[in-house]
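Exercise 7.
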Amino acid sequence: MSKKNNSGSIGCLVSISAILILWMDSWMKWLIVAFLLATFFLKNQKRESVAEVDSVQNKKNVNDFSPNFEIKYEDSEGNETLRQIFAKKIDGQVLTAHCFLRDEERSFYIPRITECVDLETGEIVTNDIKRFLLKKFKQNVRPCDVYRYEEWVERSYNKSKPVSENVGEFDINQKLRMTVVTYKEGEIQGEFLLEKVRISSYEIDGLYVVLLDENGDRHNVGLSKVISAEGIGDFTAYIENSYYQSDNGKVQRLLMDYNEVLSILIYLGRADASLTAKKRAKINEYMILIGADCTEDLIAKVSRRIKLELTDYKKIVNKYAKEISENQKKSFKETAEYVVGGREKAKPFGMAGLQYLDSKMKWC
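Solution. The predicted structure, written as tokens, is:
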């Protein structure tokens, strides 16, 4: 209570006491005066106690935190200062904090923070400072709060090697416990059905996985955004191995390892008619003979990818004639004759292809 208020209260009390002394009986007036005096002093003591508690509490509120970050901050004119702060909140690109250099609450424009040190852990951050600060405020940071989408797709959250450019789309359908990062939700984890792998023209590794979560929601996640998968060390290596175990991967492997021989036999098989099941079976028989991991169904899928003109066929024959081993020539010749319908029954277009093959192979 202020001195001015105390003086006013005392004057009022003296006036009341004087009136009572003049108009009331002796014992009664002195009893009332004593009551008024006691009430006044008790109230005054309580107010002083409350004021003292408030003063201590205010002091405590100012000093009950210590700096949790040290930042290098650059103002609009390029002047850099070193400050210790107690970070409070982030709103957009603005960090609100108590600045111990100025001893007051200040607002800092995050892009002007050139370095941030976590005083608790000693970690020093010079890049992605906003993401680092957001993670300190809440466990899950949504990339959409930090990056433009064009920046996001270029980021990687694992240390796996890039997947081979030969890997394409395929279905996988395997349940895995995973931790992934999505653009709008941030880091999520749980058990997912890894349904398929698809090609992406946006992701840095060119592929993404389609995940079905336990709630029935689907998430398209780039391979570089997979943080971990239980029981799998290198996720991109796992995807690559899974691809080559799938039909699409086996077809790709056949085209990589046996492109010339398959192209020649499929071209001849189509020369005058369709590539029938019997022709595919004969080609498959030869492919297994030379060591390929093959089935008639895979031959059918390979044939859909091979489209040759006569000039392409001749170039491939020229190349393969230099590569084929002598002990394979006999079986290859028999297979080539079979897929055109036999030398006696071959139609003109098929026979022309076979004769060109004869001229380059120089059969024994």
